[in-house]
Structure formats: structure tokens, C-alpha cells
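Page 47, continued from p. 46.
Same chain as before, 111 aa.
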Amino acid sequence: MAVLSNGNQPERTCIGCRKKGKRHELLRLVAEGSGSTAVLVDERRRMAGRGAWLHPSESCLALAIKRRAFGRALAGASGTAAVEHWIKSGASVAATATATPIVQPESGSEI
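Result:
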């Protein structure tokens, strides 16, 4: 008989520091597509395509750039300007967001 646990959240690996974290602690990144090499922040975690995960910190961003992790994780994507701008402008917002996680339905049925 299985016991259900509320704390059983999916874990993802940060492409910068390579440490695991819960989904709500990390940013989901996707390649823009249509021949572009830009990387976008998927704030709602709903955009189509393969995703990569990154802690919302400048240190993890710097490590990911240094390791060229964006190109490996997102099939050739290398334009990180949108991610850099999001992290630098939203660092204080991200810190409060991790303190109170927002739970969204996984099924896609939004009310």
C-alpha cells in the first residue's frame, strides 16, 4: 500500500551549477525556435519544446554561460540576453517567489 506524500515534488537539474532543485525553485528556459538562437524564460512553464532549468541567480547564469550549457541543453541556442535581463531585473522577485510557491495544475486545465 503506497502512502501519498505532499512533499514529493519533481526535481530538475540546474544547467549552471548542476545541483538538483524543485521545479518551483528553478527557471524553465526554452529555445525561441523559427531559426533563432535566442533563449527565452518560460515563466508559466507551459511553452512548447524542450526545456532547460536554471537557478534564478547570477552565479548559476555565469556558470551556464562559461560551460556553454545553453547550446547543449537547447540544441544550439546561445542568445542569453533575455535570460540575463530577467535574472538581473527580477532577482528580488524570484527570491520572494521561492518563499511562497504557486501551485498550478499539471493537466493543462486552467480555470
